[in-house]
## 1
Amino acid sequence: MQFFAEKMHHQKMEFCDYIEALEEERKKIQVFNKELPLSLELVTQGFLFFVCVEFDDSAIIACKQQLSGTMAEYNLNDQLECSEQTSTEEGPVFEEFMPIKKRSSPDYDDGDDDEEQHSHKILKDSTKSDWLRSVQLWNPDPPSTNEDVPRKASIEVVKRNGGGAFQPFQRDEITNGKANNASSNDKAPSSSPQIPATSSTGPVTGENVDGSSKNEDQGQKKKRRSWSQELHKRFLHALQQLGGAELATPKQIRDLMKVDGLTNDEVKSHLQKFRLHHRRPNSIIRNNANSQAAPLFLVGNIFVQPPEYAAVATSSGELTTDTAPTGIYAPVASHPPASTHTSEASIKKLQVKQLELSEHSNSEGRANHGEGAGNSNSPDSSSSTHTTTTSPGY
DNA sequence: GGCAGAATAT
DNA sequence: CATATTCTGC
């Protein structure tokens, strides 16, 4: 008897270990949840299965309960994510998943696909999106207090704001700090409701879109604009609407962003940086051998192909961020409310640019992304092996 | 003169 | 490194 008891105990322990292992596994996989909802499910199911098989020992039961608890948690999370995604549809979604995008989805690659090197980027490749990450996570400027900003201002109060430079927007009211956002003034939102100001998206620690209060000291150095997550999101959104970083112009972007206090120069600068960080990575290993074949993940004994590979191209062959966060539920990239300009002009521009690029920048694998309009898809410059655009049903 | 983009500067 | 500012050409 004793022996038996011992044996049971042993088994129990083993089982628990197993459970733990599984749990861990699931955690790992959860990272890919967005892309591979199926995998999670499978693992989870396996989980249940094992839990339910035999043993009714109290300990096991406890385990079971615990597990179910965690499961519920996961589900809840999933749901939350989903709802968030769907509810945001406007465009924020797009940017929201940028960080994840980098690892396997052909993200919205504005003019230059740069993506497709999936195989490796899984863990590395941080190069490209690194800066993005920083931008997104950047915790906007703390309140006032810090630094000498106020001091300087007071010293050089000069305040000869005769010309008023850029926009009239909110004048001083340094105190207002946040709270504003109202921005009732400024250009009327015209048509699209646009992003309802501070979208719940994340830990936006009470920071307004326009970054901060701008003092009147115009003769002075501009206060560094911090591109908060929100701001950047808008930026991306605008970009998306305009057809990519290569097509959009600072002014357009600024208009679309509808952030008061935001100047052209600021947008220009940001855009410059954006482009910079986006173009370079392209030249790198565009695709090795089979890289183009959508990676298959082995789940259980089933191969699963991440949904991103079903990425669709937007009519104008632009961003198409989609990023299929939850795979199946992938919200289709929203279209620009004002679809007017984005069509002809931009396409033309696109073509021109592509020509230019293909001409004097042979070294850089510029990409092709014009699928939508059926226009070119330059056989990607010279990158090693053929790149048969293996696009799943478009 | 405005604007966009690149090049510098901070 | 992230922005700002300046320089250029259109």
## 2
Amino acid sequence: MSGARQPSFRIGELSARCGRSVHAIRWYEAQGLIPGVLRDTGGRRVYNTRHVGWLTLMERLRITGMSVAQMRHYTQLVVQGRSTLAERRRMLAEHRRAVEARIADYRRALALIDRKIGFYEEWIDSGQRPDDPIAPDKPH
Amino acid sequence: MSGARQPSFRIGELSARCGRSVHAIRWYEAQGLIPGVLRDTGGRRVYNTRHVGWLTLMERLRITGMSVAQMRHYTQLVVQGRSTLAERRRMLAEHRRAVEARIADYRRALALIDRKIGFYEEWIDSGQRPDDPIAPDKPH
DNA sequence: GCTTGACCTCGAGTGCGCTCCAGCACGTTC
DNA sequence: GAACGTGCTGGAGCGCACTCGAGGTCAAGC
């Protein structure tokens, strides 16, 4: 390890620091999403600040919709070392594209929702039902 | 109903027109997400173009993360008629805010992912492992 | 040396949103 | 009148990502 001694802590502290439950952290490890977790003499998991950063990355990938299977694959690449650098970059770039595409979908959906909101606004203001903004009310 | 006779069709056609499985459409109806579906003499569901529009709206709400329970609530408001116009507008506006917030989360996550991609790029180009962009590689 | 609290493993349970299947009915075509 | 395509109902099953609980271990403090 490099130079200065890293402060280490156990799972309760990691849980507090990154806002995930201890159950979730252990489950992530069991899924192969947290490599290199050492144990103390009592068999308890020991972490340091690098793990906080790693879990932060995992969380960002998760909330942007990467599946656990893909995250596992990415983690395996990391474990394999430098030979997988290009593949890791490719994976993240690909994921980035997928997220941008989803945002674009959201924007399209919002456009429709906005038209519907405008439709309600006009109806409320005028007291007269306006023309349908593509998606009609009450489909009978 | 209003003026001109609407062309009507059955569930297979609706499925083809809006790209959902017949199973999914029946399930949506059972969940209270498609009000006012009439039957022909043989007991088969009959739809018209208004249903296509309605399902389009439902799909947009779904893909932007509205839960089925919320969609059911919204549908009930629509069925109740004009007295719920303001509440419907409120629901959609609230949902809109939630979607915008999620997009903002995505953008924050993408910022981290971009730093990580840049990190890999630099590492690949220079052959030297650069400083960590917050989330470190290999947490051992 | 006993209590306390944090941690351990293993496995079952949960909520969501479908998806699929069995078994049956209808109605058009040959 | 038999076959075929399309539709019906009710209910079981599924994939995902956790979440929780039972039952036990360990070590620090009193």
## 3
Amino acid sequence: MRASKKITSSCNEQLDELRRGPWTLDEDNLLIHYITCHGEGRWNSLAKASGLKRTGKSCRLRWLNYLKPDVKHGNLTPQEQILILELHSKWGNRWSKIAQNLPGRTDNEIKNYWRTKVQKQARHLKVDSNSKMFIEALRQFLVPRLLEKVELSTSSSSTSTSSMEVNQNNFISQPQCKETLMEKTSSNSDIYSSNFKRIVLPYMPESSLQSNGYIVDNNNFDVMSFNQSNTQELMSSDLPAFEFQMAGIDWTSNEFVDDTFWNMDELWQFKK
DNA sequence: AAAGCAATCAACCGCGGGGTT
DNA sequence: CAACCCCGCGGTTGATTGCTT
């Protein structure tokens, strides 16, 4: 271990005093109180000054991932899942960058979601989760089902003050550009073809998207990794010869919408 | 009811980048 | 320019919880 090489005897004593493992309620309260009074940042000195027997690193992690007031707890919504799939396809394992676009969600949470849900499915299908095959599978089958869930959940409540609009090829497109969407629809492209699905998602990002030209204002997303060009690339001949075959499943049935989403292995078969 | 296993997620670790001295 | 320190990121671990037998 790298740290151990540097450890002096006095450091060792300090390390011995440091607590590890799960945080207690008292520690949480102490950290919250200290940050409320003094603000966050400068974690090492914060850790010492607060009286916590934790490393600065540990304090930072506890605050950012759990204690910070704007951290959301609970399951990811279908909208958030779509965004994660979308942004991961664009940026790969850039968890913190992805998290920046999901207000209230932490990189740790997103990473855990990816590893426990998405990668698990890829493993079951015996494909690499970064492979074109798997990405195409997500695009063709999983995203539409998530969209369906979203549609169902929003059909009853239509009080959104801001929204994302989504279709299954281009997961998300700018909602303020209805005309733009219409133009594209009428101007032929495969992406905006007849199976185009426009769904208004109630979504209220608290911060602007940042980075790589995907920035829009608080009310508008434009995230286009599955754009026309790379969709065409996916569909082109350099893909291994494969087909996903529905295992006699009626995808329009509610049973899958209501069930847990990630059961692809039951739904699909690979056919060489 | 209990044991064994799997899934989940909070927390830790190593590393690299950037700033400071 | 090198050495050091701090911070944040991504990968990994391990404790806890839930499920199955």
